[in-house]
């Protein structure tokens, strides 16, 4: 079957760095995306990795290892506004864009 | 504002009823996706349309159907509603399908089935 696994919750301190992991098992793979969703809000796109390696966008970076079917989202200099749920997503060979169940990030002051 | 418009924002109805959720994609976007999000659940893929044609289908119930019209807006029809259908329904759009596309989500329709 197809699945994306990510931790359900992660807690970190304001100003610190946190990593949210995602492992996937899909039929076909085109790339790994990350989305952020605040409570009561809509998901918003953060990043996309099609090739192995690290992509950096400001305080956020995303990494992909296709051989390990693994990726992560790295958030640096955490701010209270980063408290949200983070979802990894992949498009499979049937063109379905499948999301993980999400990781809820709690940030402590 | 993502540019994707969903109506209505809230919908309260009774079991057995039928409702229609509407989505207008961003200007120029040809693909529309529908997702269901239940409490503390991830985004469950329902269906995708590209330029009026069904492109991909998830575990969408037979009681649910959707279509994309020539003006590219889309409607999701939910019939014979059950309590378990209560959820947040999101529509998303993208320019095209294919690797690397970025989905823009609407603000969702909160459906409550009583």
Entry summary:
With 109 residues, chain A is an all-beta fold. Chain A is 0% helix and 57% strand.
Structural description of this entry:
The complex is a heterodimer of chains A (109) and B (114). By secondary structure, chain A is mostly beta strands. Chain A is built from no helices and eleven strands. In chain A, strands 2, 4, 5, 9, 10 and 11 form a six-stranded mixed beta sheet that branches. A five-stranded antiparallel beta sheet of chain A has the order 1-3-8-7-6, with no helix packed on it. The radius of gyration of chain A is 13 Å and the shape is globular. Chain A starts with a strand and ends with a strand. The mean pLDDT of chain A is 93. By secondary structure, chain B is mainly beta. Chain B is 0% helix and 51% strand. Chain B has no helices and eleven strands. Chain B has strands spanning 5-7, 10-13, 19-24, 31-37, 43-50, 53-57, 64-68, 74-78, 87-94, 104-105, 109-113. In chain B, strands 2, 4, 5, 6, 9, 10 and 11 form a seven-stranded mixed beta sheet that branches. In chain B, strand 7 and strand 8 (74-78) form a beta hairpin. The mean pLDDT of chain B is 92. Classes of the chains: A mainly beta (109), B mainly beta (114). The A-B interface holds A 30-31, 33, 35, 41-45, 48, 50, 87, 89, 91, 94-102 and B 2, 33, 35, 41-45, 48, 55-58, 90, 92, 97-100, 102-108.
